[in-house]
Design goal:
This protein is an alpha+beta fold. The protein folds into two domains: 41 residues, no CATH class; 80 residues, Arc Repressor Mutant, subunit A (Orthogonal Bundle), CATH 1.10.10. It is built from five helices and seven strands; from the N terminus they run H-H-E-E-E-H-E-H-E-H-E-E.
Length: 131
């Protein structure tokens, strides 16, 4: 990871220590798991899953708000790197039923997702109905 960051943003003074701290935190939180090989990590076997559809829709709204594209295909949306290590069980039909998202079918199986104009800013996580 360090080499990739150095290649992307250049050698910065505190980069080495910052990457070490981030990796250490990710290991402590269980997001990275040691593989037995030095400096090699993998995601946890079971990804983080919730049955709370409202929470999943909120996470998708947040990531779509932060994404530079105005719309994105559903298949790409649920696999964005920003959503690691979460696994989503919501379907495109859940997004169609939500007032937060607009879904447009383009072609036989190409569903594009965007936020509705009145839902451009995600609500607070505290306002969600946790089931």
């Amino acid at each position: 990871m360090k080499q990739r960051l150095i290649a992307e943003i250049g050698q910065l003074g505190g980069l080495d220590k910052a990457v070490d701290r981030i990796v250490s935190s990710l290991r402590d939180w269980g997001i990275f798991v040691d593989t037995g090989e030095r400096y090699t990590y993998s995601p946890p076997s079971p990804r983080i899953v919730t049955d709370n559809a409202a929470l999943q829709l909120w996470l998708l709204q947040v990531v779509l708000t932060a994404h530079p594209a105005e719309e994105i295909s559903f298949a790409d949306l649920i696999r964005l790197p920003e959503l690691f290590p979460f696994h989503f069980t919501v379907t495109i039909d859940n997004l169609r039923q939500s007032p937060t998202f607009e879904v447009q079918r383009q072609g036989v199986s190409w569903d594009m997702v965007r936020l509705t104009d009145e839902h451009q800013k995600p609500q607070s996580i505290n306002q969600l109905s946790m089931m």
